[in-house]
Amino acid sequence: MTACEREAGPSGLASALTATGALTADWLPTFLAVPRELFVPDRIWPGIADGTRQTGLVDRAREPGAWLRAVYSDIPLTTQWDEGRHTGDGLGTTPTSSSSMPRMVVSMLADLEVGEGHGVLEVGTGTGWNAALLAHRLGDGNVVTVEYDQEVAAGAKENLRRGGRTPTVVVGDGRRGWAGRAPYDRLIATCSVGQVPWTWVGQTAPGGIIVAPWGTEYGGECVVRLTVGEDGTASGPFTRSSAFMRLRQQRTRRPPFAAYLKGRAWPAGGARSTTMLSPQEIGGWVEQFVIGLWVREAFWRAERYDDGSYTLWTYSTDTRSWATTDYERGTDTYVVVQSGPRRLWDETEAAFRWWVDHGRPGFRRFGLTVDRRGERVWLDRPDNPVV
Question: 180, CA 20 to 30 Å: which among 7, 27, 166, 187?
Fold first, then answer.
C-alpha cells in the first residue's frame, strides 16, 4: 500500500510524489493548496499507472471512499469518452478527456521551469487542475488555457471557480494557441502531438520553453522540452516517457482492417518469409517510438489467441501495404507475410537494427528541432538527425 493510499488526501499523494522526486520543493506549497478533488467530476474511470487501460466506473454518489482513493492515487482518471457521446456506466470506445496522472503533471510542471511574472499558455484545459496549479503559482492573470471541447471547458470553468482561481479560459483550436497575450514565456500542452504546431513556436518568446508530449503514428511517446531561439526555431531534448490523449485535430482515423485484404482470405497472395526478430522484442514503448521514426505512416495491432501466441499486423495508412508476423512461444524463427509496395516488416527490422547498433538509446538521448522546414528528431545532438 502506497503512502497516498494510506492517507487519501493531498498530503498523502504529495508525500508519495515527493518520495519519487517528481514533486519538487518549489511546487509543493502549490500542490497542497490546489486539491485535485476540486477538479475531478463525480463519475470517473480510473486508469493504471503504467499503461493506457481504464478500469470500471467509480461513481462518487455510490462509492465516496473509492472515489476519493482514486482521486488521490497516482493514476490518470478518464472523465469523458467519445467526445461526450458516451453516457453509460461502462467503458466507452475512446477516452477523450481526463485528469492526468499526478506524477506526470508535476514532472511536466518542473520541466517548464516557471518563474515569477512568467506568462503561460496551456493547451488542453481538461478538468482545469493543471491551469489552477499554474494560476496559484504565477497569478491568475498570467495564465491562459485553451480547450477545444465546449462542454469540457464549461466544466473546467466551474471547477476553477470552486477552487477560487480565475485564469483566462479560451474555447478554441489548440493548434492555433491564443494570440491575445502572445508572446508567452512558457507553453505547455496536456495533450500529445505528432507534430508541434508552428504557431506554438511563434507565440513563445525567444528563450521561452515549450513542454509537450510528442509521439509517432506507429506508437511510443515522450515529453519534449523545447527552447525557442532568437532565430525563431525551437530545439531541445525529450525528458521522459508519456502516454497522453492526442490533440483532437491531430487524431488519426484508422482505416478499417477489411480495407487491406480486400475481401480475400489471409495470406491474400502476400510474400512469405521468416525472421529471427521476435515481435516480443519490439513491443516496448521506446522500441515503438524508434520504429515510428523510421516506419512512417504506419500502425500496428495484435491479433491474440488462447494459447498465448499472436499475430502482429502492421499496416500502412494508405491501405496499400500490410505485413503479418506470427509469434509462437518456444521458437526462435517467426513466419512473416508481406503485401503491397512497401515491405513493412523489412522496414521494422531495419529500424530495430539501427536502434540496437546505436546502443539501444532511451528517450533521454533523443531530441527534437522544430523550424519552418518542419521537424527533425535527433540522437544526442541536434546536428545528428535520426532520419
Answer: 27
- pLDDT one-digit tens code per residue, 215-232: 999 999 999 999 999 999
What Cα–Cα distance (Å) separates residue 332 from each residue in 12, 104, 164, 279? 47, 38, 60, 11
- Chain centroid, CA 202 distance in Å: 23
Tens digits of residue pLDDT in 283-332:
999 999 999 999 999 999 999 999 999 999 999 999 999 999 999 999 99
- DSSP string of 192-234? BBSS--HHHHHTEEEEEEEEEEEE-SSS-EEEEEEEE-TTS-E
Residue 143 to residue 127: CA distance in whole angstroms? 15
Contact call for residues 362 and 295 (beta carbons, < 8 A): no
**Mean of the per-residue pLDDT values of the chain:** 94
Closest CA to 215 of 315, 117, 115, 289: 289
If residue 288 lies in a helix (H) or strand (E), which one and from where to where?
helix 285-294
Q: Judge contact between 295 and 344, C-beta under 8 A.
A: yes
Q: Give the largest Cα separation in the chain, rounded.
A: 64
Q: Which of 130-139, 193-202, 207-216, 257-266 has the lowest mean pLDDT?
A: 257-266
Is 100 marked active-site? yes
Question: Among 73, 97, 98, 100, which one carries the catalytic annotation?
Answer: 100
